[in-house]
């Protein structure tokens, strides 16, 4: 297993255009990404999106971002969470398009604890819209939500990744939840 310094060197090389270095980072961190995806998709029986597919689709999005720069492990996981979010949202859109009518309803809740799986439905689409609004107001709060909700990381893991206190992350999570809930309630029925 590579250490953090080695991963940082590979990320520097990847930032300079070394595709092989990015592949080494992804291979090294694959198990962590797969565990994140598995946690998030737990309970999604009968779905065509499984943890392996989610990681692979996220990988394709990561390598497809020419401007992607991974300064360190935290930035890499932030990009990975964003890529996973994108894959999950695309999957939810596709599922809804296949449903008769594809009508969406208003989302009015966001769990305090993100213990279970993401629901691959219209709730995810509503959350994605609200999260985009939050990112326009405060990117830091949106990043905490992505890492928590879409990557399935705990407050402690996010704090370590972002080199901040767990208490600070908890406050950010609470602020973000309040913003998202207000945004979801104000959203007109689609």
Distance between the termini: 48 Å
What kind of sheet is the major sheet?
none
Q: Which descriptor suits the 3D outline?
A: globular
> How many separate domains?
1
List SSEs in N-to-C order.
HHHHHHHH
Structural Rg: 17 Å
Number of strand elements: 0
Number of helices: 8
Determine the strand fraction and express it as a percent band.
under 5%
Q: Classify the secondary structure makeup into a structural class.
A: mainly alpha
Helix fraction?
55-70%
Q: What's the overall average pLDDT, rounded?
A: 77
Low-confidence stretches: 102-108
3D structure, described in words:
This protein is mainly α. The chain has one domain. Helix content is 69%, strand content 0%. It has helices at residues 4-15, 19-41, 51-64, 73-98, 122-137, 139-150, 155-162, 166-186. Helix 3 packs across helix 4 (73-98). The N and C termini lie far apart (48 Å). 34% of the residues are buried.
């Amino acid at each position: 297993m590579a250490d953090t310094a080695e991963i940082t060197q590979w990320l520097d090389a990847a930032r300079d255009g070394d595709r092989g270095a990015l592949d080494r980072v992804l291979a090294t961190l694959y198990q962590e990404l797969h565990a994140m995806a598995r946690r998030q998709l737990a309970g999604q029986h009968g779905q065509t999106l499984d943890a392996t597919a989610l990681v692979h689709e996220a990988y394709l999005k990561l390598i497809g971002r020419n401007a992607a720069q991974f300064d360190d492990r935290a930035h890499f996981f932030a990009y990975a969470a964003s890529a996973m979010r994108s894959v999950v949202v695309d999957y939810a859109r596709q599922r809804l398009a296949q449903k008769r009518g594809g009508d969406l309803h208003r989302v009015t809740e966001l769990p305090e604890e993100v213990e279970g799986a993401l629901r691959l439905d219209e709730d995810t689409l509503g959350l994605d819209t609200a999260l985009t609004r939050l990112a326009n107001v405060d990117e830091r709060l949106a990043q905490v939500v992505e890492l928590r909700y879409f990557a399935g990381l705990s407050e402690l893991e996010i704090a370590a990744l972002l080199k901040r206190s767990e208490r600070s992350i908890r406050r950010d999570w609470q602020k973000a939840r309040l913003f998202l809930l207000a945004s979801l309630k104000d959203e007109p029925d689609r």
